[in-house]
Structure formats: C-alpha cells, structure tokens
C-alpha cells in the first residue's frame, strides 16, 4: 500500500510560500559535478526524494555525496566509474544525464535505461545522435545505452526538437571535447541556463545560454565550484495556479518571474491580478476565473509540467478551454481522474476540451506522475467534501514540504500512511 492524501475542498489559499531549487536543475548539476575532480557544493537544493536517488547513482560511480539540509556536497574521484547499472538508475529517468559527463571524463559510458514513464515515450535518439556527431559510438545493448569514443571532437549538432535532456547531455560531453561544438535548436529552459552557468563557473567556455544556439569551446579540464540552484519555476507556477483556482491570494518567493512569463500572462487572462517582484510574484484572484486556452511548448512556451495545473484551472473556470499538449503524448491520462471529480472534460489526440463547472465533487483519485498528482490535489481543493489522492509518492519526488506549504496557505490536507 502506498500513502495517500485526504484533501478538503473549500479553502481560499492565502499567504506566502518560498520555493527551493528546481528539481530539473539540481539533478543535472549533481551529474555535472562528475566533470571535475574534487568537491562540488550545491546550495538551495530541494528536499525531494529524487536528490538522494541521484546521490546513489553518483555513489555507484565512485563519488561520495553528502546531503545536509539544502546543501549537497559531491566529491568526485580522479577517475569515476563509467557504468551506471540498473539498480542505480531504475528508479527515475533523470539518471540518464550522467551519460554526457561520463563521456566527457571517461570517453565511455554504460547507463542502464530506466523503464517506461507514465507521461509518454521518452526515447534517447537525439542524445545518441549528438554523441555520435562528437565522434562516439552509441548503441542500446541489453537494456543499456553503451557509448564509447577514442576521442571527442567538436561538431555541429542540430536537434530535431529542443529536447532538454539531449541538450544537457551533448553540452556536458562537449565541454571537454577537442574544438568547438554548436548545438542548434537547443533547449532554452532556465534549468539549461543554470547548467551553463555552473559549467562556466567550473571553467567551461559556453556562449548562447538561453538562446537556440549554444557554442561550446572544449577545454582541457574543469574545476569544482559552489553553485546556488535556480528556483523551481514549476513549483512556483503551481502555487500561482492554486491561487487562481481557489480564488486566493498567494505570494511566491525564490523565483525569477521572467521564468514564468507566459504562465503569469495566462493567469492574468483568467482574471487574476499579478504583481511581479525581483525574486517572486503575487497572484490574487477575486472572482471565478474565466476560461483560457493553453498550448504546451518548449520554453519560453507554456511548460508541459504545468499542463495538469492548466487543466485543473480550466475545470472550474467560466467557459470553454482548449489545452493542447505538444511535448508528451500520454500526459492526458489524468484527465480521466478529473472526470471522476465531476470535471466536464474530454480529450481528442493532443487536445483536451474542458467546460468549467462551478465546483468539482470529491472522489478517490490516483496520481500517475509528479505533476498529475499535484494537479489532483489542487482539484481536491475546489471539490465539495474530502478527496482522497492515492499514490502520492510521486509528489514527494518533486515538491519539497508540500503538505506544510499547503497548510500554511490555509489548505486542509492529511497524509495517511500505508
Ligand atoms: C525534461 C524534464 C521534464 C519536462 C521535459 C520537457 C527533467 C528531469 N525532466 O524531461 O520534467 O517535462 O524536460 O520540458 O528535467 N525526445 C525524443 N528523443 C530524444 C529526447 C527526447 O524524441 O532523444 C522527445 C520526448 O519523447 C518528448 C520531447 O522530446 O516528446 C521532449 O523531451 P525532453 O525535452 O527531452 O524531456 P526530458 O529531458 O526527458
């Protein structure tokens, strides 16, 4: 049996919360620590389940890792092991990001492929094509990505799609390659910019961070650094949407509002008043939200990780909303759970069409991934009665102190163990 939440509907969320570093950044920064022998320190790390899992992956490669509060210290040996085996990586997908650093340091890598994911297929063809362009062989053998190179040389890489993971792996392989690599159609997410920042602090030469073209001039070696992880825009955006859904008033600190430009614009479109600060924002919603259309796209588009929240908002908005998913095809599975809560929603291919109702009605529901799980909790907040959200270990993987933060805003939530 896994844990579940019981969420009581009806509260208007009011107050202030702070976000920690981004899950989708810290895991890659931990992998990047493999690029330099010695002690790398990451501060502002979120206390989420994926951080100790990534620590285990790095330990399996010979690093020592200490997690103390929001500080992660990684001591990388002169010669890390190159084999991340199935036991280490099976629990979560982000472990694939050790591929690039291992190629850079060891010129070879064997990284077991994690199992399927509930949000859609996640192939590695672009990661492999990039490594091949840099001079490596890369195949899938016996459930592992196996890559090796005599030497890595700079190359021109053009991605078919601005994949976050492929951009990161190719970038981390290229920083220690001979010569200049350009990555075109590169991902532009703030977490990529954060990785470029840390790599530059370590001595890498990278131009174009945050633009569609990254130019990397290989260097002979990198040195460890101390780095502050960029704030989690997905957690921050979740609280912004929660304010709009519950007709509340939430201030979020620890985030650059530029990282949520489109999300905050959409909330304004739904009728919210949004104030932006240097290190956060405030969302105030005084009346029932109005329907807005949303289409997920790579940054600076609407993040796919906030798509469940956009649908949650649509379920109680006045009017008809169309939400289009362009990144992960299976992300609509959770819409069926929302229908159990009384949502008037249907999906057709990449589109979900939602006619808002005044209020949802409580029911037991099941989370299929991190973001869908939180989307269901938000839906529970606007349902009559108590909603049971099952399989909440997904939420533990990405939302630090979730229950405490929700309670501090006036939400009623209880965790039932087992
Ligand atoms: C990362 C994030 C995830 C987020 C996603 C998109 C982490 C740990 N996860 O995932 O939360 O939702 O970015 O912002 O950072 N693709 C291929 N071939 C490849 C690589 C990707 O076809 O070689 C496809 C995927 O199937 C998907 C799309 O490209 O349809 C985007 O994937 P990608 O940007 O790579 O996402 P992740 O890095 O896996």
TrEMBL record:
It is an enzyme of class 2 (transferase). GO terms for biological process: cell division; cell wall organization; peptidoglycan biosynthetic process; regulation of cell shape; UDP-N-acetylgalactosamine biosynthetic process. It catalyses: phosphoenolpyruvate + UDP-N-acetyl-alpha-D-glucosamine = UDP-N-acetyl-3-O-(1-carboxyvinyl)-alpha-D-glucosamine + phosphate. Phosphoenolpyruvate binds at residues 23-24. Its main location: cytoplasm. Pathway: Cell wall biogenesis; peptidoglycan biosynthesis. Belongs to the EPSP synthase family. MurA subfamily. Its EC number is 2.5.1.7. This is UDP-N-acetylglucosamine 1-carboxyvinyltransferase. GO terms for cellular component: cytoplasm. HAMAP family: MurA. It is found in: Cytoplasm. Transmembrane segments: none annotated. Residues 8-406 form the Enolpyruvate transferase domain. GO terms for molecular function: UDP-N-acetylglucosamine 1-carboxyvinyltransferase activity. InterPro entries: Enolpyruvate_Tfrase_dom (IPR001986), Enolpyruvate_Tfrase_sf (IPR036968), MurA_subfamily (IPR050068), RNA3'P_cycl/enolpyr_Trfase_a/b (IPR013792), UDP_GlcNAc_COvinyl_MurA (IPR005750). Keywords: Cell cycle, Cell division, Cell shape, Cell wall biogenesis/degradation, Cytoplasm, Peptidoglycan synthesis, Transferase. UDP-N-acetyl-alpha-D-glucosamine binds at residues 93, 305, 327. The active site is at residue 117. Cell wall formation. Adds enolpyruvyl to UDP-N-acetylglucosamine. It comes from the Bacteria. The gene is murA.
């Amino acid at each position: 049996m896994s844990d579940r939440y019981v969420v009581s509907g009806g509260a208007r969320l009011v107050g202030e919360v702070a976000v920690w570093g981004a899950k989708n950044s810290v895991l890659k920064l931990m992998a990047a620590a493999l690029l330099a022998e010695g002690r790398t320190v990451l501060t502002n790390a979120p206390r989420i389940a994926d951080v100790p899992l990534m620590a285990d992956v790095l330990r399996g490669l010979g690093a020592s890792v200490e997690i103390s509060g929001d500080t992660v210290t990684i001591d990388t040996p002169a010669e890390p092991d190159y084999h991340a085996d199935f036991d280490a990586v099976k629990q979560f997908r982000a472990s694939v990001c050790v591929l690039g650093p291992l190629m850079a340091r060891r010129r070879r890598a064997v990284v077991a492929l994690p199992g399927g994911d509930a949000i859609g297929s996640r192939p590695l063809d672009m990661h492999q094509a990039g490594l091949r362009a840099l001079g490596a062989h890369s195949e899938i053998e016996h459930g592992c990505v196996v890559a090796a190179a005599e030497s890595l040389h700079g190359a021109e890489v053009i991605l078919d799609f601005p994949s976050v993971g492929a951009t990161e792996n190719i970038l981390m392989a290229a920083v220690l390659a001979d010569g200049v690599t350009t990555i075109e159609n590169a991902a532009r997410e703030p977490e990529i910019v954060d990785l470029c920042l840390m790599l530059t602090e370590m001595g890498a030469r990278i131009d174009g961070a945050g633009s569609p073209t990254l130019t990397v001039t290989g260097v002979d070696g990198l040195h460890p650094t101390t780095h502050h992880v960029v704030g989690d825009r997905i957690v921050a955006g979740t609280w912004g949407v929660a304010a709009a859904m519950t007709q509340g008033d939430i201030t979020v600190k620890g985030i650059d509002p530029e990282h949520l430009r489109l999300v905050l614009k959409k909330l304004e479109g739904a009728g919210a008043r949004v104030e932006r600060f240097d290190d956060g924002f405030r969302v105030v919603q005084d009346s029932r939200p109005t329907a807005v259309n949303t289409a997920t796209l790579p940054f600076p588009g609407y993040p796919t990780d906030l798509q469940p929240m956009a649908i949650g908002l649509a379920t109680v908005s006045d009017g008809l909303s169309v939400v289009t998913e362009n990144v992960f095809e299976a992300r609509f599975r959770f819409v069926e759970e929302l229908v159990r809560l009384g949502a008037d929603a249907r999906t057709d291919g990449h589109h979900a069409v939602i006619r808002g109702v005044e209020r949802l009605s409580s029911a037991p529901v099941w989370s299929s991934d991190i973001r869908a799980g939180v989307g269901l909790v938000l839906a529970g907040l606007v349902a009559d009665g108590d909603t049971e959200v099952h399989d909440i270990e997904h939420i533990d993987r990405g939302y630090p102190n979730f229950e405490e933060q929700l309670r501090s805003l006036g939400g009623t939530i209880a965790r039932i163990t087992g």
